[in-house]
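Input set for joint prediction.
Command: fold jointly, output tokens.
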Amino acid sequence: QSALTQPRSVSGSPGQSVTISCTGTSSDVGGYNFVSWYQQQPGKAPKRMIYEVTKRPSGVPDRFSGSKSGNTASLTISGLQAEDEADYSCYSYAGSYTWLFGAGTKLTVL
Amino acid sequence: QVQLVESGGGVVQPGESLRLSCAVSGFTFVTSGVHWVRQAPGKGLEWVAFIRSDGGNKYYADSLRGRFTMSRDDSKNTLYLQMNSLRPEDTALYYCTRDSNWGPDYWGQGTLVTVSS
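tokens >
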């Protein structure tokens, strides 16, 4: 069970769009439409921003969107805002009731 | 509303055991599975274990199987994680989280486990 691959960091200016990738294998990301994305502010518990690849929980701004192509899932944040600065982690079902996290990506809003 | 409150963390020496608890409210174990997830200091999140809503089946990360055991007491709405033969690399903040749509939605605030001599 290897962690999913994410870039260590991404950055963007307010108003811009950024995309964070999450690469796995056909046994996890590519094999199931059960990818979630979590936002984590310093010292806080993670907050789910996307589930089942593209769905947004109630209360999450529509600036956040998810997608998947093959073994890579992506989180796109459009209209970047200062409060979006946080760590973002992907999470995928990997079959047989096991799950994998990505190592996390630090988003910096310039 | 949904709440999960972890407890039981602390400082232990390598090789010792610890039992974490997770008291839940706002939902029942009959309707939702629950995950344990941990986060080492300055590191990313790591899935630890999952118990299904039927309570009969528990699943563990390969690296932990045999040392960690998950259980629950439905009468107390409390989940447990028994951790044996602890190692320094088990040092982390341990979260319990409710499963929804094949991934965690609600999270507790975590309980810190430190394994050090």
